[in-house]
Amino acid sequence: MDATFTAEQDEIRRTLRELLLKRCGPEEVRAAVRTADGYDPGLWETLAQQLGLPGLALPEAYGGVGCTTTELALAGEELGRALAPSPLLATAVLGAPLVLGLGTPSQRAALLPRIASGELTAALVVPGAALTTALGLTGGNRGDWAGGGRAGGVQARQADGGWRLYGQADQVLDGHSADLLVVAAHTGGFARPRTLFFLVRAGATRVRQTSLDETRSQSRIQLRDVAAELLGEPEGADVGGVLARVGDSAAAVLAAEAVGGADRVLERTVEYVKQREQFGRAIGSFQAVKHRLADLYVQVQGARSAAYYAAWATVEGRERVGGLALAQALETLRVCASEAVQLHGGIGFTWEHEAQLYFKRAAGDELLFGPVHRLRAYAAEEARLFGGGEVAV
User: Please, what are the domains in the chain?
Assistant: First the structure.
């Protein structure tokens, strides 16, 4: 692995950081999450049309930039520093790769250029709390996690030469504002059960939910006899394999996001302890505080190395380590945010201070993409570290 970034990669980080410093401070974040979309449309237009972030990892043949997961992870790290609310995760990290991996040539040609330009946003609809299982991060995704029928979830049925969907999903990232829903649904009943993906453009009932982390909007999607288009071909599609690859890449990007957040909250804490005084001196001069901050710094650097390696491994087709990198990064963000709240003293516990935003991001991401111990347990199970048996979680 070559740990040196190219000039192009450094330019992506520099340009994005400068833009976010100008247009995505704590007050802008608070204002954006309270809009109908849950993000700033003007900022998203800039990210999409001027910087090309939605198409960063898409092939040039479909209007993308032709870069890799590594570049997308670097962009994610900068967005994570600012906690920038945007549909990038749902659209470019989860939705677009599924269309690319499962879609027919005509579906790819129709959808991916519009996604790459930012004209079309997408959301991945997975029933219940099965997102990490579907992505192969906390469990095997070859089972019936999509539910259907009495098991809940979403059921797909053929009718009048097309497909109709029935069911509900409650934790859909950016589902209320997405132009395109990529829905996992159970087909075949009890005789031939399988999970396929469908494209829904209209007809679904969408309700934005109150979430712990307002910077990651979540929605309830209700499908009542909704017309849908099958994504790809009904036979021969390796849905589980494609999902696992998407999950590994998504975990690397999410890990980089968490590292960016941890790095930023640590920076802000270091700045504060240099200013806050007790007993006539800055608290940052106390040895105990120095030790705590030094431990955090080492933890952030370790998580950053893991995130970068995971992104590189997905590009090189090496072992799947995205889940492990995500576990380390989520834990690091949680610890850094907790220490920030404590070291900021009384102000760190208030809604007015930005420390609470990072703490909520840490807690919210663990609920959505973890928890950490399950990410690690499943990685250990896959690597057969304990004799090939299942790991108790």
Answer: 7-89+109-119 (1.10.540.10), 123-237 (2.40.110.10), 240-382 (1.20.140.10)
